[in-house]
Amino acid sequence: MKSVLLLPNKFKKAGWLVLALTTLIFIIYLITDYGNPIRVKVFALLNTYILSDDKQPFFTFIKTDISFTLFCSLYLIGGILVAFSREKEEDEYIASLRLNAFLWALIINYLILLFTLLFIYGIAFLYIMTANMFTILFIFILRFHYLLLKSKKSAFHEK
Amino acid sequence: MRNRLKIERAIADLTQAELAQKIGVSRQTINAMETGKYVPSTVLALKIARLFQKPVEEIFSLEKED
Fold first, then answer.
1. Would residue B53 be called left, alpha or beta, if left means φ above 0 and alpha means ψ between -120 and 50 degrees?
2. pLDDT of A54
3. Residue B38 to residue A93, Cβ atoms within 8 A
4. In angstroms, rounded to a whole number, what is the distance separating the alpha carbons of residues A34 and A12?
5. How far is CA B47 from CA A23, A155, B15, B25, B61, in A?
6. What is the C-alpha to C-alpha distance for residues A142 and A6, in angstroms, rounded to an integer?
7. Which of A46, A66, A134, A146 is the most exposed place for a label (fewest CB within 10 A)?
8. Which of B24, B31, B44 is closest, CB to CB, to A154?
């Protein structure tokens, strides 16, 4: 795995911060606003909300609830920063751990997808699919850091 | 693959951290190699051999399963 594709190590802390803050803001948002919509005017490259007859769906400005957009984007950015930042010492062994973690994330994610397709129907299916957008990243983060911790602990016991 | 990394490291009187620093890898890498959890790349094996001033085959050898 060419380490050229990875971000500098300092982005990792920033990523964790983004994830933590987003979770906090999300909880506050749910508690105080009861999940009320945040209505803002945004630019839509393609918009297929119900339009009146004379409007077309491309390159429009629409006023809509962006709470979903906001939180998902922040989680995604945080996740990307954490997952794709170098470790302080990025060498071939760490690269092999990364590969393993990515394989796990992909395989598990697609098994979940298959299971969902076969057994989940209706609106629940859409909700799970939405969550499925992020599970690759998060399974990777979990597995990668588990492997790192395991190897650090093993090295600690030696000398 | 079998390796005498731990033995050579003891002969040279280096800790895992020291060896790691000399080679330019993380300490986890040295530990993973010594415990047989990781097979180093050719470049890394050659670097290690050069550090201990021994031929590569004296430090790393194939097992029957390889």
1. left
2. 61
3. yes
4. 32
5. 46, 21, 17, 11, 16
6. 18
7. A46
8. B31
Where in chain B does DSSP place strands (E)? 2-3, 60-61
B30: tokens are 């040295």
Q: Tell me the β-bridge partners of A46.
A: A58
The answer to whether A158 contacts chain B (CB < 8 Å) is yes
Query: Backbone dihedral region of A34: left (phi > 0), alpha (psi from -120 to 50 degrees) or beta?
Result: left
What is the CB-side half-sphere exposure of residue B39 using CA atoms within 13 A?
Answer: 8
Length of chain B: 66
Query: Which of A47, A79, A82 is CA-nearest to residue A63?
Result: A47
Q: Name the interface residues of B facing A (CB cutoff 8 Å).
A: 15-16, 24-35, 37-38, 40-41, 44
Chain B residues close to A89, C-beta within 8 Å = 25-26
Tokens (6 digits) for A63? 């006023």
pTM of the prediction? 0.84
Looking at beta carbons, which residues of chain B come within 8 Å of A159? 15-16
